[in-house]
Write a structure and sequence with these properties.
single chain; 119 residues; alpha+beta; Trna Endonuclease, Chain: A, domain 1; 2 helices; 5 strands; nucleic acid binding; Restrct_endonuc-II-like
Length: 119
Amino acid sequence: MTDAMRLGKAGENMVCRYVLQKGMKLLARNYRAGKGEVDLIALDGKTVVFIEVKTRSNMNFGTAAEAVGYRKQQILIQTAQRYIAEHRLYDSNIRFDVAEVYPKEGSRLNYIENAFGVN
């Protein structure tokens, strides 16, 4: 496993603990469909939450959330639609959150609820 992969996994673990502490139920980790992957899928009440985790060792290339641009959002939306169809969750509310993790800043976590939506 590369350093970048270890860093990413540590970030996902941190966010996983965070969402569980917030009372969400974890449904899936690293769900893959087609060309896409969703890091974490959770249930927040009656809302299915698709969470993209971005871990950055520094901000030389912008914030972690800035890495979730339009193209990445479209892939996440398509992957979420596949998950919804697979699990027959057609009547569920959905939400897309982004979690930024900065381990070199004391493992700072910035959790952005409703980071983007389906147009």
